[in-house]
Amino acid sequence: xxxxxNPTPSGTSDxxxxxxxxxxxxxxxxxxxxxxxxxxxxxxxFDETYAATIGIDFxxxxxxxxxxxxIRLQLWDTAGQERFRSLIPSYxxxxxxxxxCYDITNKKSFxxxxxWIKDVKLERGDDVIIVLVGNKSDLANDKRQVTLEDVxxxxxxxxxxxxxxxxxxxxxxxxxxxxxxxxxxxEFNTSVNDELAMENRANKPETIDxxxxxxxxxxxxxxx
Length: 224
Hints:
By secondary structure, this protein is of the alpha/beta class. It has one domain (20-189): Rossmann fold, CATH 3.40.50.300. The chain has helices spanning 34-43, 88-92, 107-111, 113-124, 140-143, 148-158, 174-184, 192-200; strands spanning 20-28, 56-64, 70-78, 97-103, 129-135, 162-165, 207-209. Strands 6-5-4-1-3-2-7 form a 7-stranded mixed beta sheet, with helices on both faces. A hairpin with a 5-residue loop joins strand 2 and strand 3 (70-78). The N and C termini lie far apart (62 Å).
């Protein structure tokens, strides 16, 4: 007769061992800094000469949260050029978070947020977390074209979860952005098959497991 040294009560499971995965899609016009946001978060690097994203890029990263939860963020970097717009809806469709980016020194990129938000709403309705990100805050003193009042008004209009200004060059508020996203995530129950389908759509997925610092939030954050 065999003996089970680790009995598990019938009908129960150890939910603490479940690695929950969340799809986060980055949207916005070309050159607003979507790729540099992801790269700064993943590798803590910044490159002045980023090439424009062609189609869709995919990376994933495991985060260890303050409440002892572990989650995996699947980061989908989309192209901002008009010729790739037809690809975007299929990647929005099963996303949990839409990070919609603009350049605070480029008013047109901010005005175009309406169409990106419309794309998200068409595919996901209200069943998605929307985050507004104004990048290049290091240029705020000399070249700002989008005020905090502008984005706050849009934030209230569209019901985004929060908005924040970042600088990937100065490494300002990038970790805070992802920490706030993680804190906003509900306990989705995504099936294994759904997760495999999402990962199979990426050409060369790369996973890096790094803890996020507990002191990531700077004292002068511009977020709401």
